[in-house]
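Example 9 (inverse folding). The structure is encoded as follows.
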């Protein structure tokens, strides 16, 4: 499954938020997606066709009657795998809901709706417009026609008021687009949990013991699981802004407690869980001025989180662990796979996994089958892992 084979058509309507779509175009292109842009005439009061064409490396379409050689609203409909209307104004939403086709963008929508391919609206407007019952009724009508919406955010608006109406964060629009592109709706009811990041074990009120895990591999796994349509929950020690559910934890005990409360079909334990914690945690900062000699910190073992959860695993559940080491990688991974009663284990080396955007891994199944995945981006590695470990 390659993103470079996917075509995204973005429809830009008249909104002060239109300039933000420059960043969305850049993000799609950075990730090897093909992009074309159609705008309303009024949108050109806020954005430049030259900038759009430079960023997308394609022509900017806005004139309904520019060419007789190519019927744009048909050719663009045939080309696109998804139509993303962002920002979507109240005016364009209402036209689409009523089936009006009085400009190139709405003509494309009318043709595209019949294609059954995904459509995503990202509204942006004044709070009063957003709360207008007519607009809400039009949105409801479009949702019944299988159009997807990513709701605007609360915040300070261009009109000088504060309320709901700001265009959703560009990263969230990007993620929702990829979910619409790649999801298998059979996955929607399958619960997949990913743990990620390095745990932080407190010593005192300001200090803690941690490790070098960046959480990038776990984030890539969670992102691709979300794009593929799974019901994703992440239990994380790092801050993330995503469309799926995120539970923030710090310590191994907190992560274990969060996991014990969750049901799942797949559990991917990519977090680097600390093996030890301080026996006694100081409620205040430990000051060196109050210590006359060397400071001794007594550590005690943390519970083995994945092994503890695996003890109560149901027959239909799968648990995928990770093994990170710098010597005897396969032997160590096989031992963990058996001892912790896992279904799969992902073996990777310290030198290739930590503090990088790439990785190479070996997937070992409980049946004994071994699959090597060569050095690649963590995003591509994540997709390959999911294709193996998920039914």
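The amino acid assigned to each position is listed next.
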């Amino acid at each position: 499954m390659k993103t470079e084979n996917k075509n995204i058509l973005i429809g830009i309507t008249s909104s002060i938020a239109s300039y933000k779509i420059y960043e969305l175009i850049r993000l799609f292109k950075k990730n090897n997606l093909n992009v074309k842009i159609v705008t309303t005439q009024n949108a050109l009061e806020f954005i430049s066709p030259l900038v759009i064409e430079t960023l997308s490396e394609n022509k900017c379409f806005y004139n309904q009657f520019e060419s007789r050689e190519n019927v744009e609203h048909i050719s663009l409909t045939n080309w696109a795998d998804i139509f993303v209307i962002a920002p979507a104004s109240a005016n364009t939403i209402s036209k689409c809901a009523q089936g009006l086709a009085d400009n190139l963008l709405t003509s494309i929508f009318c043709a595209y709706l019949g294609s059954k391919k995904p459509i995503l609206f990202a509204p942006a407007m004044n709070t009063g417009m957003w709360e207008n019952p007519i607009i809400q009724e039009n949105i409801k009508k479009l949702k019944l026609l299988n159009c997807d919406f990513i709701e605007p955010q609360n915040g300070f608006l261009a009109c000088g008021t504060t309320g709901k109406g700001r265009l959703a964060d560009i990263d969230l629009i990007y993620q929702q687009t990829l979910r619409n592109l790649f999801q298998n709706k059979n996955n929607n009811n399958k619960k997949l949990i990913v743990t990620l990041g390095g745990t932080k074990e407190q010593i005192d009120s300001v200090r803690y013991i941690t490790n070098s895990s960046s959480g990038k591999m776990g984030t890539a796994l969670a992102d691709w699981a979300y794009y593929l349509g799974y019901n994703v929950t992440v239990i994380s020690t790092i801050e993330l802004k995503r469309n799926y559910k995120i539970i923030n934890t710090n310590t191994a005990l907190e992560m274990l407690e969060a996991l014990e409360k969750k049901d799942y079909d797949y559990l991917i334990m990519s977090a680097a869980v600390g093996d030890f914690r301080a026996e006694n945690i100081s409620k205040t900062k430990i000051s060196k001025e109050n210590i006359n000699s060397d400071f001794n910190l007594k550590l005690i073992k943390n519970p083995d989180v994945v092994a503890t959860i695996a003890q109560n695993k149901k027959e239909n559940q799968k648990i995928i662990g990770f093994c990170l080491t710098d010597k005897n990688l396969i032997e160590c991974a096989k031992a963990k796979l058996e001892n912790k009663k896992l279904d799969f284990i992902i073996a990777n080396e310290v030198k290739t996994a930590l503090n990088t955007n790439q990785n190479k891994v070996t997937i070992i199944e409980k049946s004994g089958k071994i699959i090597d995945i060569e050095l690649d981006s963590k995003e591509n590695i994540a997709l390959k892992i999911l294709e193996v470990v998920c039914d």
